[in-house]
Design brief:
Blueprint: H1 12-33, E1 40-45, E2 48-54, H2 67-79, E3 88-93, H3 97-105, E4 110-115, E5 140-142, H4 147-161
Parallel strand pairs: 3-4, 4-5
Antiparallel strand pairs: 1-2, 1-3
Helix pairs in contact: 1-4
Bound molecules: zinc ion.
Length: 164
C-alpha cells in the first residue's frame, strides 16, 4: 500500500463481483453443454444469489430467453414483484438492447458484465445506453469483470461448433 498501488482484491465489492461472476460463468458453461450460446447470468439481492440462468432461446423456443431476462423473470416470480429494487445482475457478456430495457423495467440497481459483445452490446459496443434512463430508471454499470474468461467460453463454443 505504501507504494500507492491499488489492491483491488482487498476491495469487498471487487471480491464479491469476482465470486458472483464465477457463478454466472458456471451457468454459461452449462448452457454450452446444452448447445446454447454460452452466456450466463445471476441475480443477487442482499448479497445472496436469487436466480441463475443461461441463454436458452433454442431450448425454450423463445427469442427473448436471454440469460438476463430469465433471471429477471425467475426472481420476480420468487419475490412476487416485478420490481427487483436493489438487485445486481451479473452477466458474462454485455447485454443487448432488449436486456438493457428489461433490466431497467425491473428497476435493478446495478449491472455487472464480463466481455464486450461487439455485434449486439448495448452498454458501449454497438449502442451505449450506460447511465441513460429507460423510462424513469437508470442503473449503474461495471464492465470487464472476468471478461477474459467469459470471452474464452464463447470462443471455445464457436470453435467446437465450427469443428475446428
Ligand atoms: Zn439480451
Amino acid at each position: 500500500m505504501s507504494d500507492g498501488l491499488q489492491q483491488p482484491t482487498t476491495d469487498a465489492l471487487a471480491v464479491s463481483d469476482w465470486a458472483f461472476m464465477g457463478a454466472a460463468l458456471a451457468a454459461a458453461r452449462v448452457g454450452a453443454e446444452a448447445g446454447e450460446v454460452p452466456v450466463g447470468a445471476v441475480l443477487v439481492q442482499d448479497d445472496a444469489i436469487v436466480s441463475v440462468a443461461h441463454n436458452a432461446p433454442i431450448g425454450l423456443q423463445d427469442p427473448t430467453a436471454h440469460a438476463e431476462v430469465l433471471v429477471l423473470r425467475d426472481a420476480a416470480r420468487q419475490r412476487g414483484n416485478y420490481r427487483l429494487v436493489g438487485a445486481t445482475v451479473y452477466v458474462t457478456a454485455e447485454p443487448c438492447v432488449m436486456c438493457v430495457g428489461a433490466l431497467a423495467h425491473a428497476r435493478v440497481r446495478r449491472v455487472v458484465f464480463g466481455c464486450p459483445e461487439p455485434k449486439a452490446g448495448a452498454l458501449g459496443s454497438v449502442y451505449d445506453l450506460t447511465g441513460q434512463a429507460v423510462g424513469t430508471h437508470r442503473f449503474a454499470v461495471t464492465g470487464g469483470v472476468r471478461g477474459d474468461e467469459a470471452a474464452a467460453v464463447l470462443r471455445e463454443f464457436f470453435r467446437v461448433r465450427r469443428g475446428a
